[in-house]
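Open question from group meeting: does this chain pack into something compact, or does most of it stay loose? Before anyone orders reagents, we agreed to write out a predicted structure and look at it together. Recording both the input and the output here so the notebook holds the full record.
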Amino acid sequence: DLFGETFPTVWVSDRYNAQLKTPCQHQLCLAHILRECRYLIEAEQSPWATTLKQLLKDAIDLRKSQGQEFDPLERETFRKSKSIENQLKQLFDKPPPKENEAKLYKGLFGRQEQLVLFLHDPDIPFDNNGSERALRNRKTHLKVIGAFRAEHGMTRVDTLASIIETAKRQGKNALDIL
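Structure tokens returned:
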């Protein structure tokens, strides 16, 4: 209801349950998963997380290496993408033994295609950092002022910030939209 007719066809998410339940395709935010892998590598010396991290980095590098010219159907790109997907499938053949890596495994199991959806469509980003960057100014503002005295003030500022950031992302003049 909130999105109306502008509901996204692909959602790049942090794996929150509410996000994963949305009726659309999902690309999992690889920046968040890579962060979890780094923790598992440092805390548990996890070979499973090391392999996952490398596969995800390979996928990101493949995408970045072509920049705006990324074509998922180009022969070599397609071959490399399929290789990464097959290695991911093998990595998820059996759960890893350590508790925290098994937790990540369980959270990603059955979602391997959501790790590499961005390799099939050049319009899909591999992370949701763009959305998080849009919120950064709002968070900085909140840190500076401390807090709002009234909830309606906070709601108004949040609404305006959302409209302004949306206008920027759509290449529109925020003042015209307001």
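Observations to bring back to the group:
The radius of gyration is 19 Å.
The beta strands are 10-13, 25-28.
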